[in-house]
Amino acid sequence: MGLGAQDQITYYHSLFLKRLRKLGLAEGDLSTEEQAPLAQITDMRVDGKSAEIRFSLRDPGHRILSYNIWINGVPILGAYGRSVRRGGSTSRRRWSSPRGKTRSRSPA
Fold first, then answer.
1. Contact 19, 29 (CB under 8 A)
2. Is this structure's pTM higher than 0.70?
3. Which 3-state string (H, E, C) describes the chain?
């Protein structure tokens, strides 16, 4: 866009590059294509308060680096999720519901 003083533009660009480095990315890794990765649940089993899902992840244009599973707005695999092994795009995860009441969403 070219708006602002050159020193401001340089400063904000350096902050942008710093954020990318923290994510393990380079500027060349970014794309302007509007294509989202695809996630498909292939199997799900529930046993009392525990569940197991099998799923596949794919993106024809890029390598998927990590994934996360959210339950009731909470990332169960932590803030950064889990890394995807090179060449592997299917996975299985098992978890148990915590004791006590859990937050439920009202139907829309």
1. no
2. no
3. CCCCCHHHHHHHHHHHHHHHHHCCCCHHHCCCCCCCCEEEEEEEEEECCEEEEEEEEECCCCCCCEECCEECCEECCCCCCEECCCCCCEEEEEEECCCCCCCCCCCC
Q: pLDDT tens digit string along 18-77?
A: 999 988 888 887 777 777 888 888 999 998 888 888 988 888 777 888 888 888 888 988
- Angle made by CA atoms 42, 45, 50, in degrees to the nearest 5: 130
Contact 92, 52 (CB under 8 A): yes
Identity of residue 82: R
